[in-house]
Amino acid sequence: MEFEKDNSFITGRIKSVGFAVKGAFKLITTEHSVMVQFSLAILMIVAGFYFEIDRYEWMMQILAFGLVLGIESMNTGIEKMADFVHPEFHDRIGFIKDIAAGGVLFAAIAAIAIGLLIYVPKFI
């Protein structure tokens, strides 16, 4: 089956959204780190309703878990591509994968800090 690009604006965008939804579903159902992070995002949404956080806190919380899930998606894509290009262990591939994972760590630390800023005062 050969790929044909859809040059129509509307149907092309609809297909792009379909591919994105398919990719998000694959991430959530096959990648353990994404499963954990998605579960934490759901937990944070429930906590937000429980603690009745304000609009600003909702914005920060949504941005935080959106950032983590987005960066984790890019990291997973980089890892899958690297494994496809060079399936055996290679120092340079390992270096690239480590850097991508480091990006996830930065996003996760920022998300944890935002979560603490929102929820620690609720317990004090």
Question: In brief, what are we looking at here?
Answer:
By secondary structure, the protein is an all-alpha fold. The protein is built from four helices and no strands.
- Which residue ranges are poorly predicted, with pLDDT under 50 across at least 5 consecutive positions? none
Q: Roughly what percent helix?
A: over 70%
Terminus-to-terminus distance: 60 Å
Order of helices and strands: HHHH
Mean pLDDT: 93
The proportion of residues in beta strands is under 5%
User: Helix/strand-derived class?
Assistant: mainly alpha
Shape label? flat
DSSP helical segment count: 4
Rounded Rg: 18 Å
Summed up, the domain count is 1
Largest sheet: none
CATH architecture descriptor name: Orthogonal Bundle
CATH class membership: Mainly Alpha
User: Using DSSP, what is the number of strands?
Assistant: 0
Query: Would you tell me which CATH topology applies?
Result: Helix Hairpins
GO molecular function: kinase activity
Pfam family, one: DAGK_prokar
Subcellular location: Cell membrane
Family: Belongs to the bacterial diacylglycerol kinase family.
